[in-house]
Specification:
Number of helices of chain B: 4
Number of strands of chain B: 0
Structural class of chain A: mainly alpha
Order of helices and strands of chain B: HHHH
Largest interface: A-B, 21 and 16 residues
Strand content of chain B: under 5%
Distance between the termini of chain A: 15 Å
Helix content of chain B: 55-70%
Oligomer: heterodimer
Transmembrane segments (chain A): 6-22, 34-55, 67-85, 92-115
Radius of gyration of chain A: 15 Å
Shape of chain A: elongated
Number of helices of chain A: 4
Transmembrane segments (chain B): 20-38, 50-69, 76-93, 113-130
Largest sheet of chain B: none
Structural class of chain B: mainly alpha
Protein name (chain A): Integral membrane protein
Largest sheet of chain A: none
Protein name (chain B): Integral membrane protein
Radius of gyration of chain B: 17 Å
Distance between the termini of chain B: 26 Å
Number of domains of chain A: 1
Strand content of chain A: under 5%
Number of strands of chain A: 0
Keywords (chain B): Membrane, Transmembrane, Transmembrane helix
Chain lengths: 122, 137
């Protein structure tokens, strides 16, 4: 993983989550601006996936399957959460999307560990 | 969905805060399930108890998620109750006798490998479900 790209994606996930939790506290319904927020996070995770496809095959470790399955999960979770949240009329619609940011941050942490210990070895 | 009247659709268990709970349950069912499946398939003999427990935990997460989505309050309560008992029992056992759990499972050490979410989740779930049950009366 490219370190600065990983940190940028991590920052995007936490920033989106924090913003959405503020929206939860303000009882906002899921709207267009939130779709844009999720799209920005998705762009960062997608960049990780593209970078992974480019550099992982050249590494010595054997954790590629794990690495990519976590990355694809991280890509799917915010979209699923925003959809699942958008069909709710309470504040917890956007709250659900906010929680997905924390999930993505945790997945990225795990992906980074897999990179460090199971792929980028030797 | 579309067939229901928009104005006064009944509030189900999966509405409101339940939506967030369902998301977390589904994420845990998928991640614990995928991990258990991978471990059982590749190295089951190393730690059969840990891996079986992970699979059982994944199944309970799935049951809880589906029960909340479908509004089966009693099933959800039972599943979340078993989950809480499981994480407390396995957490305590894994500290008392680490030899039993050479490989980490979702519930060992009270879910420390998962940021203690496995311990917090059933408590939050129980509070939510009991609150909703009280409100329904």
């Amino acid at each position: 993983m490219i370190e600065w790209l990983y940190l940028a994606a991590q920052a995007a996930a936490l920033a989106m989550s924090a913003w959405f939790f503020v929206e939860t506290a303000r009882s906002q319904r899921v709207g267009r601006r939130h779709v844009v927020g999720v799209a920005v996070l998705e762009a960062f995770v997608l960049a990780q996936l593209v970078a992974g496809i480019a550099i992982v095959p050249g590494e010595d470790g054997s954790g590629a399957g794990l690495f990519f399955s976590y990355l694809v999960t991280a890509l799917l979770v915010p979209v699923a959460a925003l959809f699942w949240g958008s069909i709710d009329r309470s504040r917890w619609g956007i709250g659900t999307a906010a929680a997905s940011g924390v999930v993505v941050a945790a997945l990225l942490l795990r992906i980074h560990q897999i990179w460090e210990f199971q792929i980028h070895v030797g | 969905m579309s067939a229901e009247p928009q104005a006064r659709a009944p509030r189900t268990l999966a509405d409101g805060f339940g939506r967030l709970i369902v998301l977390v349950y589904v994420v845990f069912a998928v991640s614990a399930g995928a991990r258990a499946g991978y471990q059982v398939a590749t190295k089951f003999a190393d730690a059969p108890l840990s891996f079986t427990l992970s699979a059982v935990a994944a199944a309970i997460y799935l049951v809880a998620a589906v029960a909340i989505i479908r509004g089966a309050a009693r099933t959800a309560l039972v599943a979340v109750g078993i989950e809480l008992a499981g994480v407390v029992a396995v957490g305590a056992l894994s500290f008392a006798d680490p030899d039993w759990f050479p490989e980490p499972s979702v519930w060992s050490h009270f879910g420390s490998g998962y940021g203690y979410v496995p311990l917090v989740l059933p408590v939050v779930g129980l509070v939510y479900l009991l609150k909703r049950r009280k409100a329904a009366r």
